[in-house]
Structure formats: C-alpha cells, structure tokens
Design brief:
Blueprint lengths: L1 H26 L13 H7 L3 E6 L1 H6 L1 H10 L2 E4 L5 H4 L9 H12 L3 E8 L6 H4 L5 H18 L6 E6 L12 H6 L3 H12 L4 E6 L6 H15 L6 E4 L11 H13 L3 E7 L10 H21 L5 E4 L29 H12 L2
Helix pairs in contact: 8-10, 12-13, 13-14
The structure holds (3S,4R)-3-hydroxy-2-oxopiperidin-4-yl beta-D-xylopyranoside.
The site of (3S,4R)-3-hydroxy-2-oxopiperidin-4-yl beta-D-xylopyranoside (XIL) has 6 residues, from loops.
Length: about 350
C-alpha cells in the first residue's frame, strides 16, 4: 500500500514536470547561439578590415548570456540603439547620466569591439526641458555646446565615430526645421561638427539620414555634405541609415551610384542602421526569407565594392529585439530569428564576406 502510493506520488510529480517543460518548450524554445564560432561574420570581416556591426540595447546585454555571446562573436562594432540619444544622457539641464553607456563601452572594450555614438543633434529624443524651454538663440547654442562638450568629452578616445547631426533633411529636399535649425539657424550643423571635433580630435564625424537612393532628399543631403566640405567643416563621412523598403530605397544600384559621388568629395559612407522587413516581399515565408537574404547580400556587396565604404551596421541582430516589432506591417527584419538561430540572411552575408576574402 505504502509502495503503491509512493509510486503514484512519483508519477504525479513526473507528469507535472513534463507538462510544465513541454508547455514552455512549445511556446518558447530556449535560445540557441549561432553555430558559426569557427568563422563568424566578425572574423571574416576583420580579415579584410571591414566593420560589421549592430545596434544594441542595454537590457538584454545585461540579462541574456546568449545575446552577449552572439554579439561578441559576430560583430566588431556596435551602436547603442537609444542610450546615446540626448534625453537618455542629459535628462535635466544640470544632470547627465552615463551609467548605461559606460557599461556598454566597458563591454565593448573587453571584447575589442568599436563603439559608435548616435545622435548628438537630432529633432527626436529630446528631453522636455529642451523642447519646452523657450530658449533664445544664445541659450540654445550654449546648451548644444555644453551637451557636445560634456558627452563627447566624457568618451574622448573611446568612440570610433559620432553621428553628429541625425536626419538633417526633409523628404522634399529642404533642411529639416528642427528646434536647432529654427532657433540657431542652418549653421547649427557646422557648429555641432566643430564642437565635436574640439571635444575629441580623433573620432570620425558623420551626418546621418535615410537618403541612400537618388531622389530629392538624397540630393539635398549630398548638397549639404558638399557645402560643409567646401566651408571646411570637419566632416569625415555620411551615414546611410538603410531601413530598406521601409524608410529607404531597396534599390542597390542607386545606392552604389550615390556612394560614388561621395567618394569624389573625399567622404566615406557608412551603412548605419540596416534592416529589411520581410513583409515587403511576396510569396511563402520561405520565399520572403530568401528575398530578404538576397537583399542583405546585395547591399553588403555594394558597400564591399565601393572604394569609400567599410562599415555596415544593422539596427539590431535578432528579431527578438527589433524596433520594428510592434510597427504595423513591418517585421522580422534582422539576420537572427527570435531564438538566435541564424536566418538565410545571415548565411548570405557570411558567404559574401567569405567570397570576398
Ligand atoms: C529608434 C529605436 O530603434 C527605437 O527603439 C526608438 O523607440 C525610436 O528610435 N532612425 C534613427 C534611430 O536614427 O535612432 C531610430 O531608432 C530609428 C530610425
């Protein structure tokens, strides 16, 4: 009798454990790291002096060992996705908060990964104290100067490149009427570049936008870069955000053409925020993934083939942590799936890097 109830007790426990584990596996497979340790994207890129990167978020960096493992194994450059933006670093006029970014920079240094900073002067991600402060031209210049001096100075020597002005042009080709533009005037761009250079003479300076193809917006972004160079502003490169098929063109020939004219100006081009939502492609889920893979490959090739492009950064690496999740109609834009399995896009980039060794 005793033995029978003991066996029944054991059976109940086994049933409970089995049902819990099978439920959690059915809804949420455990994350699997990539199986490419031998020759990662990073390794192939580093061999040819190429920078392959991703935007990153501090939370999974802190909590998720698989996130850290894939990140450090696959990439040699990162951009904090949100935490170098104005409102994160400078929440009150007299208070800066470097805690999160310091941790990111430390992780990067421990793993020999370069860090890019984004974005010093932008119209989004501004704290209310800036937007609602009703500041005069002189006050706003002082605020931007102080912000750049303090932030860039804090990370002097540790940031590979700074996105100094983000999204300065409108779709119709005019300069965007941001608070900086309206209050300081168009020279806010020259000033921001100069102040950044003063605060860190070694870092690369770039302006960044979704102006990759050949249209009114990209023409005016190009004109802006050209004029800045002619005026002697310290501009080293331009960033092509490359949210392909979402904010940006998905035509690689146009982008290749556009890159060339920057080379003629002596400017580098960096791909800074690439992602490719699959819903822009027709067909079965498998066909969509293949089309996505082809587009990742084509754009990587455009950069590899250009004389002035040696950096390609994606706006995240796993669909588990993409800004597009939640955006209507835009999804699964990255090269690892929700469970850190490499997608066809990963393999396509791998082959392209390998092939061009
Ligand atoms: C996005 C982030 O990915 C989101 O997490 C955030 O909520 C909003 O900003 N262009 C840019 C980036 O320059 O800073 C934006 O990042 C995406 C579009």
């Amino acid at each position: 009798m005793k033995l029978r109830s003991f066996i029944a007790y054991i059976l109940v426990i086994v049933a409970i454990v089995w049902s819990i584990s099978s439920t959690s596996f059915a809804t949420k497979p455990p994350p699997q790291p990539t199986n490419s340790a031998a020759e990662s994207l990073r390794l192939l890129a580093t061999k040819r002096d190429f920078l392959i990167g991703t935007a990153i978020k501090p939370q999974p960096l802190q909590d998720d060992p698989t996130y850290r493992e894939v990140l450090a194994g696959e990439f040699n450059i990162i951009i904090p996705e949100n935490h170098t933006k104005f409102w994160r670093l400078h929440p009150e006029r007299d208070r800066y908060d470097f805690t999160q970014v310091d941790a990111i920079v430390q992780f990067a240094q421990e793993h020999d990964i370069k860090v890019m900073g984004h974005a010093l002067a932008w119209f989004h991600a501004l704290p209310r104290w800036v937007v609602e402060g009703n500041f005069s031209r002189e006050e706003l210049m002082e605020i931007l100067h102080d912000h750049i001096q303090t932030v860039v100075g804090h990370y002097r020597g540790q940031i590979y490149a700074w996105d100094v002005v983000n999204e300065p042009v409108e779709a119709n080709g005019s300069l965007r009427e941001t608070i900086w533009y309206k209050t300081i005037g168009p020279e806010y761009i020259d000033l921001a570049l100069r102040w950044t250079r003063e605060a860190d003479p070694e870092t690369l300076l770039y302006i960044n936008d979704y102006a990759e193809g050949l249209n009114a917006k990209s023409q005016s972004f190009y004109n802006l870069a050209k004029e800045l160079r002619q005026r002697g502003a310290p501009l080293d490169a331009v960033g092509f955000q490359s949210h392909l098929g979402f904010l940006s063109t998905n035509n690689p020939e146009e982008v290749a053409e556009n890159m060339k004219r920057y080379a003629e100006l002596g400017l580098d081009v960096m791909i800074t925020e690439m992602d490719i939502p699959i819903n822009q492609f027709k067909g079965t889920p498998e066909q969509q993934l293949e089309a996505q893979a082809k587009m990742y490959r084509d754009f990587l090739k455009v950069c590899l083939d250009a004389s002035n492009c040696n950096t390609l950064v994606m706006w995240g690496f796993t669909d588990r942590h993409s800004w597009m999740t939640g955006f209507t109609g835009s999804k699964d834009p990255l090269i690892f799936d929700n469970f850190y399995h490499p997608k066809p896009a990963y393999h396509a980039m791998w082959e392209e890097l390998k092939g061009s060794e």
